[in-house]
């Protein structure tokens, strides 16, 4: 685990198991690493990336969390990503044009350990080229991704997803809930 964190702190990108599907990630505070993620995926920079946090405190350090968000997190049986307004302390490349950020409070032990040792959030985006289906297991990962990503932990080869991609919800004015991805 320490080796993974050292690599992330050096700006490397990783393919890794998450609480949903296989993910591509990096240190969410490293602008150069974030740019590499966009390049690996051939993803337009206008399409935002999700970040993972390991605790309510880390979430609150980045955004103001409305009470409704806590209710949604507590009540959902599967991982949920919520789009929040006005993030602070993150590179501009992670923040959408409307000054929002998509964040998931992960329950996955592997992800929590990495985030905890790193001391900050990590990027989490599906391990596919932009526009292609997300791979469910390691053998489905596009060879181009494997060639471009800096490293992946051995655990990924036996990864079996527990869920599909997370539900993404945007909270609007007056506690309006808009499902972006169900």
Automatic annotation (TrEMBL):
Cellular-component GO terms for this entry: cytoplasm
Major subcellular site: cytoplasm
Pfam families: Sua5_yciO_yrdC (PF01300)
PROSITE patterns associated with the record: YRDC (PS51163)
GO molecular function: ATP binding; double-stranded RNA binding; L-threonylcarbamoyladenylate synthase; tRNA binding
EC number(s) per entry: 2.7.7.87
First and last residue of the signal peptide: none
Record's keyword terms, sorted: ATP-binding, Cytoplasm, Nucleotide-binding, Nucleotidyltransferase, Transferase, tRNA processing
Reaction(s) this enzyme catalyzes, per UniProt: L-threonine + hydrogencarbonate + ATP = L-threonylcarbamoyladenylate + diphosphate + H2O
Compartments, as annotated in UniProt: Cytoplasm
Recorded coiled-coil stretches: none
YrdC-like domain segment(s): 1-182
GO terms for biological process, alphabetical: regulation of translational fidelity; tRNA processing
PANTHER family according to UniProt: SUA5 (PTHR17490), THREONYLCARBAMOYL-AMP SYNTHASE (PTHR17490:SF16)
Family indicated by similarity: Belongs to the SUA5 family.
Protein's recorded name: L-threonylcarbamoyladenylate synthase
Protein's organism: Empedobacter tilapiae
